[in-house]
Amino acid sequence: MFLTTLRKSLFGLCALYSLSFALVSCASGQIQFAKETISPVQVGNLLVSQSENKLSFVSKGNQKVFFSVSLSKAFLQAGRVDAKAKYRMASFKFVEKPVVFCTEQSLDSLVPEGKSLIIRGKVSGKDCQSDYKITVQSSQADQLDLQIQFSDPSLNRIWLAIESKSSEKFFGFGEQFTHDQMKGKTPFLFTEEQGIGRGDQPITAGANLLAGAGGNEYTTYAPIPHFISSENRSLFVENSGYSRFDLSQADELKIEYWDTNVQNHFRANIWLGKDARELLNSYTKKTGRYTALPDWAYGTWLGVQGGTEKVNFIVDQAKAKGNPITALWIQDWCGRRVTNFGDQLKWRWYADEKLYPDFKNFVKGMNQKNVQVLGYINSFLADTDPKKPGDDFTNPLLAEAKSKGYLVKNQAGEDYLIQTVGFPAYLIDLTNPQAVQWTKSIIKKNMIDVGLSGWMADFGEWLPFDAKLYSGIDAKVYHNIYPVDWARINREAIKEAGKEGKIVFFTRAGYSYSNQYSTLFWEGDQMVSWGKNDGLPSAIIGLTSGGMSGIALNHSDIGGYTTISNPLRNYHRPKELLLRWAELSAFTPVFRTHEGNRPLKNWQVYTYTDKNGVSSLSDEDTVTLFAEIGKIHYALKDYLKDLVSESTKTGLPVVRHNFLVEPNDEQLLEFPYQFFLGDDLLVAPIIKSGKTDIDVYLPEGSWEHIWTGKKFNGKSEVNVEAPIGKPAVFLRVGGKKETLLRKAFQQILTQK
What we know:
The protein is an alpha+beta fold. 22% of the residues lie in helices and 30% in strands.
């Protein structure tokens, strides 16, 4: 038997992550195999062959390669590492202690078993040895199912390397905010607070210094282990532990997954398709698709708080300007709590009668104005703040949850007290069936029964790494699942109340299968800034990248949220930023404002003076301009409804990445802050302060500038004026939806 033995350094299997998550290579990997063990094999739709020192898994039907692995080095390795997380404000820093690594691999057999191909061998190293079994099956020409198991259940790390081309590009990985394409990058996938600044300075350095909460280019609320590549293949990993995808090498894709010992296997799907659309269809067919939005969802959603008098005044003011207000989102329906972070909420899930006396009738009154009312909820229950002298806060729901054992526990078996931004709170244990039923009863009784048409279902990413859960599942494995279950519970409460299709809740945290349960996403807490990593530009990348991983219905807070007062630099929202963000949001499914965490420091879409003479930062010009932008969004209602309907059937996002619409145009990928609304509308928002014109790249075809009617030939870069209220938007001449869009823009131009 001819035995081939080759050694080559793989990818840092005994390495620890630094704070920047860089890998330090310190191990070599070898593979042993007998040539006759990998002679060509055919099983069902799958053909496996060796050529050029690699093993390829090919679709028999179309002869396209699902994936290949190199036979010049170990492509599969495993290990055991003890990991602990430093946890503060849902920002996680990991400290790892390596125990053993199996860096060497043998490939002993490759044989058909029933409809599957079974690959067996061993991984080994110092004090480490385990049999492995790889099961590969292709039940249809465009899908491959992959499963890897180890005989040693103590192994909790897996590393898998598959081949890539230097020209291959990768899109998706959930909702990313800095990079719209990941070749050359090393994203890690773990749901957490996105961070304050995420690399924009000086705020990131300040947030890290004070709270370790600055984040980085990969921190996100909604990571999803799914990508689509320019080779027209996509990969989705079922596991829920922490993971890292190393795309930094030209010829290789390296996948690392933690905590595989609990499930004792690694599971993935790989799809082939003629284009990214077909791949998204396959992926969402498995993981789920959004349902249609109710008719009222396509107007302006005013995010206002402050009590009955204030919100009534602002709704009436907006309507008087002709703003098509269809929803009022009042996050402080449950009460307002002022902390050192700003205006926050009481996190006890019933109406605050002081701010909103006779809340049920208040909701009815708004409905009579053809305005739906939305509230707020999260999976925390707030407690009294021991740092606030004389804090008279009480929470009967917390007392009930404690008495019934409905809360997440710490390692000592005590209710896990978590210091959130502003005050301490406890998480509901979503693995406890009784706690789930109790939570759903609160939603049905205190929210749906009083007439709310929706709510923000906030948070989901805060589960501590060392928590103890009712079901016994390891928190390391459940952490990424928690936000998915949070969405599922909200959805089930709506269904049980008989309100499916009438109520909309929007989530920010998520993971695989979130698109099956959430009715809508929003992008979380961006800074009120122009910052690339955490300001207005990042909201565009979040929309397009998330859409490539099944987040088809998404939007952002108009104007951003996180507002910081600091001696070095204030981050307060100016008028220009607010209106430019509104222009961007006019071309997304939902058009919703937010006052931010410090409303009096931010420019607002309304003018209001309270009984103490305190006025909002705004002017009449803003109210007028915001109404005009709101009319643009509303005029697109029929087009948006058509796109949402398409999404429910195909999984295609409403806001579309350039690669999804024009996959063959390499130059278009150099303009990541442009996007498509559907296929026939190209939008290029202003993303820099002081700019009133913009360079836009137009792909192949004929394009019409909607404000001037001027036509441009594609495959060219043009410069157009873009004053506030007239963002750079181009209609595809001859597009399938041209007639529908011309009708919408005729309405807009008439209004102007």
